[in-house]
Structures are given as structure tokens and as C-alpha cells.
């Protein structure tokens, strides 16, 4: 190769072609290499999830549940169906995750065979935490007390009673709009008012 950057037969050096074309080393990485590198990071995430009682981050929104648990300082309750969690005082919580990028009309899913037993469980927890995602990015977490969901619970109960003994509902949903209107947003945390050196609190405008 001479000073012009060409090989004797007039062909440009391959390295210079990649550089001149604006390609980086990442562009030359194969999909298999990218997969193997990503899976190594996933194993670190799974090791952390196992500590929280989540055996498979790829199943039942395990990775999203893990993020919710850590942000809210909760732990999984062993031996229970679903995403039930506990705090340090042994209060129980119902955790739900929803990917709103799939459609804002989807609503928060509940149970594929919701009956009076499941409904009683929903009413008995200390609170519900509903995490809203866009894809895999967490956007918001809302906290709802059972009393705030009673309007929804009552409508489900009425439908069950209409259907008679042994009836169940197929995955009734809680509308996202209801969650946002009645729930308290706990993530991102509301900004605290700033305090000036003189000790006066400056209100944050709406």
C-alpha cells in the first residue's frame, strides 16, 4: 500500500473503506456476537432477580417486576400466585405492569378466571402498584389503595352475581385513565419545592 492509501492493484485498503464509509467496529459485529454479549448482561440481571425470588426474567414480565420491587423497596412473597409482594412490615401488595405502547386502550390486566375468591384477595391487599411502560422503559408507577378501586371491584362483583354460583370473569381490565385519575404517582417522584438560603420555600408552578 502506498501513501495514497491504495494497494498496488489500485484497491483501497479494507480498513480505510470502513473508516471512510463511517462504519464503526460495532457495525462489523455480527448479530450472534451482539446476542452473546447481551445475554451475558442478562445473566447479571437474572442473578439479581433470583435474589428477589424471580426465577426467570423473561417470563411473566419478570424483569419489569424486578425493577418495580427495587424502586419501591419491596420483596416477592413466596408461595403465592401472581406478582404479590411484601414490605418490611409484611404488608401485602398487588403488582401490575402494562406496556402502554401496545395501545392505551388495553387497560391493566387482572386474572383470567377472576371470581369471588380472587376479588376478596384484591380487596385485602394493602395497596396496588401499577407500573406503566413504553416497551421496556418504565415511565410511571401509580399507587392505588383498595378503597380507590372499590368502584371497579363493585362492578366486577355485580357481574359475578349476575352469572350465579361458580362464575368467573375472563381477565377484566382496569382502564389506564382510571389509574391516572385515581392513583397517586410515586414514580417519577414528585419534585420537592426548592428552599432558598433564607429558609423560605419557593412553590413550584403548576
Outline the structure in words.
α4 (116-124) packs antiparallel against α5. The protein has helices at residues 14-20, 31-51, 62-72, 116-124, 150-163, 176-182, and strands at 75-76, 84-86, 92-99, 127-134, 137-144, 184-187, 194-195, 201-202. The protein has a six-stranded mixed sheet with strand order 1-2-3-4-5-6. With 206 residues, it is α+β, with helices and mostly antiparallel strands. It contains six helices and eight strands.
What is the helix/strand order?
HHHEEEHEEHHEEE
Strand percentage lies at 15-25%
Tell me the radius of gyration. Answer: 26 Å
Number of helices: 6
Distance between the termini: 66 Å
Profile the largest sheet.
6 strands, mixed
The average pLDDT is 84
Q: Which structural class matches the secondary elements? A: alpha+beta
The percent range for helix content is: 25-40%
Q: Note poorly predicted spans.
A: 10-15, 196-206
Q: What is the strand arrangement across the widest sheet?
A: 1-2-3-4-5-6
> What is the β-strand count?
8
Summarize this structure briefly.
With 206 residues, this protein is of the alpha+beta class. Helix content is 33%, strand content 18%.
Topology overview:
Blueprint: H1 14-20, H2 31-51, H3 62-72, E1 75-76, E2 84-86, E3 92-99, H4 116-124, E4 127-134, E5 137-144, H5 150-163, H6 176-182, E6 184-187, E7 194-195, E8 201-202
Parallel strand pairs: 3-4
Antiparallel strand pairs: 1-2, 2-3, 4-5, 5-6, 7-8
Helix pairs in contact: 4-5
Amino acid at each position: 500500500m502506498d501513501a495514497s492509501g491504495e494497494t498496488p492493484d489500485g484497491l483501497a485498503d479494507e480498513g480505510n473503506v470502513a473508516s471512510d464509509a463511517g462504519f464503526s467496529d460495532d457495525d462489523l459485529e455480527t448479530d450472534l456476537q451482539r446476542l452473546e454479549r447481551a445475554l451475558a448482561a442478562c445473566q447479571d440481571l437474572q442473578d439479581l432477580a433470583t435474589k428477589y425470588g424471580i426465577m426467570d426474567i423473561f417470563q411473566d414480565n419478570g424483569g419489569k417486576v424486578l425493577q418495580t420491587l427495587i424502586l419501591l423497596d419491596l420483596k416477592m412473597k413466596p408461595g403465592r400466585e401472581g406478582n404479590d409482594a411484601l414490605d418490611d412490615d409484611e404488608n401485602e401488595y398487588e403488582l401490575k405492569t402494562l406496556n402502554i405502547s401496545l395501545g392505551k386502550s388495553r387497560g391493566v390486566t387482572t386474572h383470567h378466571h377472576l371470581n369471588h375468591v380472587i376479588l376478596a384477595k384484591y380487596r385485602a391487599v394493602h395497596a396496588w402498584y401499577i407500573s406503566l411502560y413504553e416497551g421496556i422503559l418504565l415511565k410511571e408507577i401509580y399507587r392505588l389503595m383498595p378503597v380507590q378501586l372499590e368502584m371497579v371491584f363493585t362492578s366486577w362483583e355485580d357481574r359475578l352475581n349476575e352469572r350465579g354460583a361458580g362464575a368467573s370473569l375472563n381477565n377484566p381490565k382496569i382502564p389506564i385513565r382510571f389509574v391516572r385519575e385515581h392513583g397517586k404517582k410515586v414514580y417519577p417522584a414528585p419534585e420537592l419545592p426548592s428552599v432558598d438560603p433564607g429558609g423560605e420555600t419557593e412553590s413550584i408552578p403548576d
